[in-house]
Write a structure and sequence with these properties.
The protein has 214 residues and is α+β, with helices and mostly antiparallel strands. Helix content is 33%, strand content 29%. It has a 4-stranded mixed sheet. A 4-stranded antiparallel sheet has the order 9-10-8-11, covered by helices on one side. Strand 9 and strand 10 form a beta hairpin. The longest helix has 11 residues. The radius of gyration is 24 Å and the shape is elongated.
Length: 214
């Protein structure tokens, strides 16, 4: 699955000269917490979050009155508080690479680029939805997790056993385990019973960790 298939296309953006109150208003009206900042040609120059807006506001201990405070904020443009070093991802990158970047850098979204232009934005919520789709979560059936030998042909033994039972694989995901010779498999299947899936796991010498009707 590629980033362009799950991102929000044509995201709301603001220009570098936009004032802080205007940025806050844009976020509120669009119910978003992050805004890419672009120049007059649409090229990405930074990103601003609600947290950045909060940090730009004087503390409660300030001696400024409301009118003075409003005046100062109206003169403060977003380019003065935005983050300039922005992690981005290409529209044809994979969703798992986008997830890795977010996890490694502790960020909740990534502007999606086509060359120098921003064409979308991908957020943690977008990745959650992709995760749901990849695991076939909305499909009823049997879900099983088991560990099996990580060697050529081992997985084929399991899937062939399911095919012979007329089972339909909705999703199949593998993951690393502590042993380099094994892999963990999570599968969701329709058209077969728990007992039949258990039998297929046994044929590939898998060690069942969890199995349930979902």
């Amino acid at each position: 699955m590629l980033v362009k298939s799950v991102m929000t296309a044509n995201p709301v953006t603001v220009q570098a000269g936009t004032s802080v109150p205007e940025v806050k208003d844009v976020m509120t009206r669009n119910k978003i917490n992050t805004l890419p900042v672009v120049d007059k040609n649409g090229a990405l120059t930074g990103i601003v979050t609600r947290a950045d807006l909060v940090k730009s506001t004087p503390s409660d201990a300030t001696t400024l009155d409301m009118f003075e405070l409003s005046y100062l904020l109206s003169k403060l443009s977003v380019d003065k508080i935005m983050v300039r070093s922005v992690k981005t991802v290409g529209e044809n990158e994979t969703v798992e690479e986008a997830a890795r970047l977010m996890a490694d850098y502790g960020i909740s979204c990534l502007p999606v680029m086509r060359g120098n232009l921003i064409v979308g934005i991908i957020t943690e919520s977008d990745l959650f939805r992709a995760f749901i789709d990849m695991f076939g979560t909305r499909h009823a059936g049997v879900r099983a997790t088991f560990t099996m030998n990580d060697k050529p042909g081992a997985l084929n033994v399991f899937t062939q056993a399911l095919a012979e039972l007329n089972g339909n694989i909705v999703s199949l995901v593998t993951a690393d385990v502590d042993s380099p010779d094994s892999r963990k498999v999570t599968i969701r299947v329709t058209g077969v019973s728990k007992e039949q899936v258990e039998s297929a796991v046994g044929k590939c010498s898998g060690v069942l960790e969890d199995i349930r009707n979902v």
